[in-house]
Design brief:
Distance between the termini: 82 Å
Order of helices and strands: HHHHH
Helix content: over 70%
Number of helices: 5
Number of domains: 2
Radius of gyration: 23 Å
Structural class: mainly alpha
Length: about 120
């Protein structure tokens, strides 16, 4: 009987180690994608797909403006919602955002201000 008790406790230890490892990778994956979830479910505005991958700052700004003006879920005025979503994207990308993309997105901010007649 002593052998079966030892085998059972050894199995429990292996299972516990595996479930811990699974939990760890799952939590990592969830943490890695929370900004995608925010972008999709945020009350800021309904975005057109692929807006941040456009190369032309004027097109990015126009798309954000159009989305902000037509959105039924935003809480703030259209300018503020569009600018906050663009800033959110830039901030979440952080160091992983190449300098060329950052320049395009910063120009899109300036273009957004111009389209809304701010500054």
């Amino acid at each position: 009987m002593a052998k079966t008790a030892t085998k059972t406790s050894a199995k429990k230890k292996k299972t516990a180690a595996k479930s811990h490892a699974r939990r760890k990778t799952t939590s990592k994956r969830g943490a890695r994608r929370w900004s995608k979830h925010v972008t999709e479910t945020s009350d800021a505005l309904d975005l057109k797909g692929g807006v941040f991958s456009l190369r032309d700052p004027k097109k990015i700004a126009a798309s954000l403006r159009r989305s902000a003006e037509h959105s039924k879920r935003r809480k703030a005025n259209p300018y503020r919602s569009a600018l906050s979503m663009l800033t959110f994207y830039i901030n979440r990308a952080g160091k992983n955002l190449p300098a060329s993309r950052r320049r395009v997105l910063d120009r899109a901010k300036d273009e957004l201000r111009a389209q809304f007649g701010k500054d």
